Structures
1.
Amino acid sequence: MADKAKVKIKGYFTDLRGWFSLPKRREAWIETGNPKLDTSDPIAELAAKLHPGTIHASIVATHRETPTSQTFTLAPLKGSQLPAFHAGQYLSVKFTIDGKTLTRPFAISSAPYEALENGRLDITFKVKPGGYASEYIQENWHVGTELVLDAPFGHIYYNGIRDSAHIVGIAGGSGVTIFRSLIKEMLHSGDRPDRLTLLFGSRNSSDILYRKELDELATAAGGRVTIIHVLSEPEDDWTGEKGFITAELIGRLVPDYAEASFYVSGPAALYDFIEPELDKLNISPMRRRIECYGESDNIVRHPDFPGQADKTYTLTVLLGVDRREVVALSTETIAVALERAGLAIDTRCRSGECGWCRSRLESGRIWQRPQSDGVRARDKDVGYFHPCSAYPLEDITVRVFTRL
Ligand code: FES
């Protein structure tokens, strides 16, 4: 008991001595301290790098890949920086046509490490004949064209918790862009996935995007990457795989497919075709990553499309107290009708998935493409829909909540 009291008293005097010496120590710190205030904030700096908001960039190089595909290399303008992204994601790009602002998604075809090291990233685009934005881009985007980018989006990227170490990639046409990014990143980082088997469907051999580069990357990967071309309309001298990427072809060429995760990226027709084929192989939804469905090249060919070709309807647009009447084509999405009228809404995926374009149908009938119907059941009950994947079936009135 006595010892405990001694310790307590001793501690008390030590504290007092320390307290009395504080002013002197403080004076010494002030004497030797840096008079400049340290305003650095590493946490805020990291957050800004990961979420840079709107990015201003310009095209610094263009490269024609095939007669209908082109790669644009972008670099940030002063005061902007490229965003962090995963191999496999896409960017929403904002630009104007005849003074009308619109957005379109573009897959990032370069690797994340290249953006970090060189401050550059590639987007690759394929012309859709007759597409509102597509032909304009082909004719008007050159070195020096300035663009506005939004943060990267998309869920097809490697996740070691979710995905197998072996990825089977199924690409159609320009859908291969995300695999170019992934293969480059695999080679650079040496990280997982351990293996990628890419089944790449093209029309004919002159239509194969990045053919030489992908073959060189596969060779450099030393067995980690296998690329198999499958041509639907091959030339007579083609000795490789022919036809479509069927369950039979996957089973024959990828014997261990049952343990793999599948990434699918390509035009809408590929998704319609491949899903039943993956069903035949009992690939569970957990092991399928399907890229955004994208806009339809020709909705009239969709087996369920209930509309008519070559019809025009009146689209009444409400925004706040503003009311405008514009023309909508039966074969174009309501988002495109708004863009043509200079009333563009903000979009990201243009596949009905992200909900960015969510609007409300006040009257009239529309058709929401089933493959791109990401509207929640409760939202549907009160009239919400996604104009990026919906078509008018008669005169309609729509309330929008955002405008570019
Ligand atoms: S832009 Fe994504 S749902 Fe319409």
2.
Amino acid sequence: MNTPNQLTSEIHEYGFRFAAWTHLIPESEIRRLLRYKVKYYFAGGKPGVLPLEAWTQILKDVGEELYRLIREGKKRDVLEIFNYEKTAGFDPLRKVLADRLEKDGVPMPKDEKERINSVTIVTGSQQALFTITNILIDPGDIVITPAPVYLGMLGPLGMHQANIITVPTDEHGIIPEFVEKAIGKAIEKFRRIPDFIYVISDADNPKGTTLPVKRRKQLYEIAVKYKILIVEDAAYRDIYFGGEKLPPIKSFDKNNEYVAYLRTTSKEAAVLRVGYCVLPRPIVDEFIKSKGYQDLCTSVISQVLLKEYYEKWIDKVLPKAVEEYKRRCKTMIESVNQYFPPGFHTKPQGGFFVWYESDKRGFNASSFLENVALKNNVNYVPGAAFYPVESLGYYYNPDNNEIERIKFPLNTMRLSYSLLPPEDISEGIKLLGKLLNEHLK
Ligand SMILES: Cc1ncc(COP(=O)(O)O)c(C=O)c1O
């Protein structure tokens, strides 16, 4: 194998020697696709239903309150809002979120101070994914993920050169029996216990699947049995339209030991780059240490605005938004059924995404995107973006109970219904279906 220096010295005409990971990991497909302006945007998970009136009111209310404080001679208090804060977050927001999390099934201590300390604020839950990887992974360590997996998890894992063992999923998400077998095989093959299992239990990204309660319990039991951390990414927890919500895996973790529970404000409030998490006691100090070296703290004014939103607005405005996402999801599913060539697609109960797999195994969704879809004003994310790169990726194959080098189908796509109104979704999916049908004739 090349050393990082050999890899890099040829690369840059100015002689900069980039870190090895920069050659291993390509730019995120979603960030790349954000550069193309298309009419029918089905690529990234951009929230399309944000409570804009509420936000203008919150800005006004907070602005007036700060102005009042200045007039009353309390400039010092206002100065704090535009300043550095504790790395772990702004306490009033942490308290409001702790109360909400408890109502949502997350175990919380009774003591007020401990409750506040149970919630760690991050600069987007993307930072939590990076930070957990940063404190747990050395090159060659092992992480278990679903196949396919959220590509925002793949980036940090690749940067830290983790071996990524992907485990098969079905229409209900990751299959716990295979997770346990993959752990056993990982121990045999790599002589290491995986450092964590990454899973999105509610409305997965990219597949849109929701894990049944039985699987949630099974995963928790596996975590305890093998003493492996579960990273439960609940980014879409509040964008759920499937009836009563299921208990998070975190709800079984009564002593706060094995599950890192990650939430974001991006989908349910606005993209202010604030996430929040409940971290197991054994990792919280290292986590905050790492976050501190990344950003010192998360923007305080954003946290002040979000405290207002979670305290006074979310319960009034979110149900309407969720209803609208439900409508968009329904429209997308109906349009895929009506216009797409034969294939399988998921039927999400929440979140932003439908996953489609063409019956034609030879179909290449990546080249179709470049050569046909983008030229016709439509985009989506090819499914290939949600699998690890070859040098780091593995696949647990249930057929022979072996861990093999990664392989994955190219005939898949992730379609986001979050951004566009239903009329544009049906028009765009009709157009994409026509193009696919012509291409696959
Ligand atoms: C599953 C999942 N996790 C994490 C994130 C990152 O969210 P944030 O905006 O909080 O960084 C996203 C964003 O799309 C996501 O889909």
